[in-house]
Amino acid sequence: VADEQPPPGDRLWQPQDDSLIAIALAGAGLEWAAATVVDRLLIAVADGRIPRSAWMGPAAACASIVGSEVGDATLRRHGDIAVSVAAELLSTAAPTDLVGALLDVVAAAHGASAAIDAASIKPQGPTPCSIIELARLGIDLPKTYAPTIDDALDGVARRFGAHDIGLSMVAAAQFGRPFDPIVPIRALAGSTWRWPRDGCGDSAHSRAALLVGLRALCIREPDGTVDLVPGMSKAWLGQNLRVSHLPTRNGRCSFAVRWHGARPALLWELEPSTDQPLTLTCRSLDPTFQTTEPRGEMLLGEPTHLVES
Predict the structure, then answer these.
(1) Which residues, in sequence order, are bridge partners of residue 252?
(2) Which of 52, 226, 259, 262 is deepest in the core (most CB within 10 A)?
(3) Which residues contact residue 307 at a Cβ distance below 8 angstroms, ignoring those fewer than 6 apart?
(4) Contact at 8 Å (CB) between 212 and 278?
(5) Residue of 234, 238, 229, 241 lying closest to 284 (CA atoms)
(6) What 8-state DSSP symbol labels residue 302?
């Protein structure tokens, strides 16, 4: 958890950058560490070190920890500040999937009646900059935002740093933009397997950007479903993979893809945190597959749509 403020040598760092670290830690199931970073973010908001124009990151970070015991305790401790940053994002650019989590932030910090009031906030609509920032934070975005992300990717195509690689991985998962991250990640790491950022030879923020992007390639949770390997593209055909105990909103998920000739076999196991049935899909490999079984295996159809892409 990036304790040094600012990180040594990082000429780009701003206090709100720690939002990405909180989201990466929460996505990895490290709730206590994520809540520690959110605590630091909200203190920086209260002290005026994070301007209102940059509250989007802290708001998304609050949304990433809500619902956990340590996360809700952190939000209650900051009360008005947590509500303010959540309301700021609700009033500007929150996509549908994020709205519920932000209302939960308000409820955790100030009670159910405050959340009811917050639900009446009418958003002004996103700007291109806010759309790109939400994507970099790994927030699930509607398809209508894809052209803005495409424009952003066109602008970074020849200068792949960790944050640009992370954005490309998110775009691959959410909008089906083909991207093989292995080569740029390996090139970025160099011979020392460190993750640079401008002036900083090994940046926690770069590592967080890559982790958020990698998680996006592994799993999406749109509309109450769990969609596996949404970032699968032609470059991954024939490659086996395995993911263990990945945290989701509804419990932990483990899965593997094994190839039998041209057809992939999917093995999965869900450890649900609720009694509600959960729909699991794997749309990038087989758009017809879905199941509510918590564990199993299935030989999927040949992904000809990827072969022809």
Answers:
(1) 247, 271
(2) 226
(3) 234, 237
(4) no
(5) 229
(6) P
C-alpha to C-alpha distances, 276 to 60, 221, 247, 250, 284, nearest whole angstrom:
26, 15, 17, 9, 25
What token pair was written down for 27? 């996505």
Query: Is there a contact between 134 and 89 (Cβ–Cβ < 8 Å)?
Result: no
Count Cβ atoms below 10 Å from residue 306 Cβ, excluding itself.
17
Q: Structure tokens of 284?
A: 């990038």
What's the predicted TM-score (pTM) here?
A: 0.92
Beta-ladder partners of 263: 260
Q: Which residues have a Cβ under 8 Å from the Cβ of 27 and sit 6 or more positions away?
A: 64, 138, 211, 212, 215, 247
CA 185 – CA 82 distance, rounded (Å): 35
Residue 297, strand partner residues:
267
Q: Phi and psi for 14 in degrees, rounded to 5?
A: -130, 150
State the residue for tokens 């490999």. Answer: 285
Residue with tokens 């952190």: 74
pLDDT in 10s for each residue of the chain, 309 residues: 556 667 777 777 889 999 999 999 999 999 999 999 999 999 999 999 999 999 999 999 999 999 999 999 999 999 999 999 999 999 987 787 789 999 999 999 999 999 999 999 888 888 899 999 999 999 999 899 999 999 888 876 556 788 899 999 999 999 988 888 888 888 888 888 888 887 778 888 999 999 999 999 999 987 778 999 998 888 888 889 999 999 888 889 999 999 999 999 999 999 888 787 889 999 999 999 999 999 999 999 999 888 765
| Kind of pairing between the strands at 241-248 and 279-281 | unpaired
Asked if 169 contacts 195 with a C-beta cutoff of 8 angstroms, the reply is no
